[in-house]
């Protein structure tokens, strides 16, 4: 091979790739600017200058969606694929965006459904996530609609957790979870339970 410095050599050195297959006229050509190893002008196999080898064999500053940066050195950094249901991630175990109708948990993992204490947001195939219910909600459908209370709070008719019930309702329940405000009978403004009107 004719090298880039005009000498004949048996193999092209790192940073160059061979071209030609005949006995005469074979040459070595320089890899692209940020490539330390390559097989052709457009196919890098190792990057330099702190660049990342992308899935399409090119050296870039960042990785495309669905891949994360692997490596921090000057040479040999790569883009590795995120888990199958992640559209973005920081590494294989820290997801930043879900896809395929999965939910991103508050712990940066992927879930089929949100756990108790969280509510689902998003309806698209990509970007669904689980967000925390309000402080005293054990179950909720949105940030402002509780369906079950905790911490000995009562679920009010407007789906919020409070210490007390509004006028026309009485406190029902004794545990720390699941207490509710129930409506007094006969439209009474005050009652202790459904039958006892004050």
Portion in beta strands = 35-45%
Give the beta-strand count: 20
Q: Indicate the overall shape.
A: rod-shaped
**Could you estimate the helical fraction of the residues in percent?**
under 10%
- The rounded Rg comes to 31 Å
Structural class: mainly beta
| Overall average residue pLDDT | 92
Largest sheet: 2 strands, antiparallel
* Spatial order of the strands forming the largest sheet: 1-2
> Topology as H/E string?
EEEEEEEEEEEEEEEEEEEE
Number of helices: 0
> Uncertain regions: pLDDT < 50 for 5+ in a row?
none
- Cα separation of the termini: 103 Å
Can you put this structure into words, describing what you see?
By secondary structure, the chain is mostly beta strands. The chain has strands at residues 16-19, 27-30, 35-40, 43-47, 52-53, 59-60, 67-70, 78-81, 86-91, 94-98, 103-104, 110-111, 118-121, 129-132, 137-142, 145-149, 154-155, 161-162, 169-172, 180-183. The mean pLDDT is 92.
Provide keyphrases for this structure.
mainly beta, 0% helix, 198 residues, 39% strand, rod-shaped, two-stranded antiparallel ribbon, two-stranded antiparallel sheet
Question: Can you lay out the helices and strands and say which pair or pack?
Answer:
Elements: E1 16-19, E2 27-30, E3 35-40, E4 43-47, E5 52-53, E6 59-60, E7 67-70, E8 78-81, E9 86-91, E10 94-98, E11 103-104, E12 110-111, E13 118-121, E14 129-132, E15 137-142, E16 145-149, E17 154-155, E18 161-162, E19 169-172, E20 180-183
